[in-house]
Amino acid sequence: MTALRAQGLGKKYKRTWALTRCSLEIPAGHVTGLVGPNGAGKSTLLNLASGMLEPTTGAIEVCGGVPGSGPAQLAKVGYVAQNTPVYANLTVEEHLRLGAHLNPSWDAGLARRRVERIGLDPGKAAGKLSGGQRAQLALTLGIAKRPELLLLDEPVAALDPLARREFLKDLMESVAEHGLSVVMSSHLVADLERVCDHLVVLVEARVRLVGDVEDLLATHHRLTGPRRDVATMPSDQHVVSAEHTDRQTTVVVRTEGPILDPAWAVGGLSLEDLVLEYLSNPAEVRPALEVLR
To answer: Same structural domain for residues 192 and 78?
Structure first.
């Protein structure tokens, strides 16, 4: 099953394209990390997926339907925006009652158990909660809606390391318990490495990389050897980046096949290394074969 499918998706604000020619599939049942620099289109993609924005070009399908197309479709998607929005003057208890009123599949038992477990005072106004507590309240509202897909836009950006760890731990427990699909944008790749098994990298409003994390790490290699022109490398090796000294060349390549040239010293990449290579090299050094796109 597919949680999100986009084909030629684009969103334009006046003269600026926030997202362009976006084509991808995000499988259901995964936690997908959405990574990119500021202005790359991450929030735009999530807003399109939630139905808060309409595409300028192309099409997007979420959980088998058009985002925002009706009550049944809206019930399938939970969305926690970047500032983990809650109503400052409403108490925790009032947030739960509002959630029950607005969401036909609301799980009141789940919401109350989470509030008790994370130690939120039901009578306390949201405006008096800490940043971590507000994030946990927003996550509770998103999960208790019982969506098929949960969209999280930089949910831990303003949290301290301990609060981030607790938030991500609770998220993974909810994924395991309720079978959620999750798409989570973040600048904190180390956090994504802990929870994500699927990855989308956006650079300059376009998709640069998408796939299962395990497969991406297995097919990317850092090669170091005598200086050479990367144009002479085998055609099945997509060159992501290349650096040269007078005598040495270091390249990052993506390939499904083995590295057979004995002149290369072959090393792997961490997820953070992989993401940084794509963010640092927005233009392809040499285009990939179609099978690798």
So the answer is: yes
Name the 3-class secondary structure at 216.
Answer: helix
Structural domain contains residue 209: no
Distance in angstroms (rounded) separating the CA atoms of residues 195 and 225: 34
pLDDT digits (tens, 9 = 90+) for 32-89: 999 999 889 999 999 999 999 999 999 999 999 999 999 999 999 999 987 778 999 9
Burial of 237 (0-12, 13-18, 19+ CB in 10 A): buried
Q: Which residues make beta-bridge pairs with 252? A: 222, 241
| Co-location of 122 and 190 in the same domain | yes
**Burial of residue 11 (number of CB atoms within 10 Å: 0-12, 13-18, 19+):** buried
Distance CA 246, CA 25 (A): 42
- Length reported for the chain: 293
- Give dist(CA 80, CA 138) in Å, integer: 7
User: Is 235 found in the same domain as 94?
Assistant: no
* Residue 74, domain CATH: 3.40.50.300
Give the Cα separation of 203 and 40 in Å (integer): 5
Provide DSSP, 74-114: HHTEEEE-TT----TTSBHHHHHHHHHHH-TT--HHHHHHH
Token pair, residue 211, equals: 């796939």
Q: Residue type for 14, please? A: K
